[in-house]
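Protocol step 4 of 6.
Sequence for HAD-IA family hydrolase (Halopseudomonas formosensis) entered exactly as in the expression construct, tag removed. Do not edit the line below.
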Amino acid sequence: MTVSDLPLRGWIFDLDGTLTIAQHDFAAIRRELGIPAEEDILEHLGRLPIAERDELNARLDDIELRLASQVEPAPGAAELIRELHGRGARLGILTRNLRRVALASLDRIGVVECFAPEHVLGRNDTAPKPAPDGIHQLLAGWQLRREQAVMVGDFRFDLEAGRAAGCHTCLVHPDNSWPALADLHVPDCHALLAQVRSAG
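Step 5 output, structure tokens:
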């Protein structure tokens, strides 16, 4: 299956590792915050008492803001976003980062003007992936049906969120590690851009 096979009007992107070169060393972040190596960071924080959760969330925010200042675009990502924006596609971000971190990252890679701020959803704006809530929120705002949209990301949480929302899914990664979850698979954003252009 390729982009040309799908009636896509809405594109929802993960950020870190998809539109940007992955910056997060999750093992190092877990060590810095004292989170067990095998645990999901946000799930762990969500189970803590409020005072401890607030303290660690603030430290996580600081880590992410520091990383945002160093972010670089993934190969082909900025060109892909500009192409889709020029074609009038609805564009959204669904990230487990903070919205302000996402906006800073989009600004740094030169595409922040392609996204309406309300269409950039972080972990404080909606339930974090793999929950589909953010996708439902974007589709409602765009007044699009789920089959008109695709969730694009580099990890299974992105694909699981897309599946749960009933929209199409696209894995951007050299390896197709989750073939049962991905409708489309491309190695990078350059390849996805080529499919968009060939679809006309």
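Step 6, annotate. The first helix runs from residue 26 to 33.
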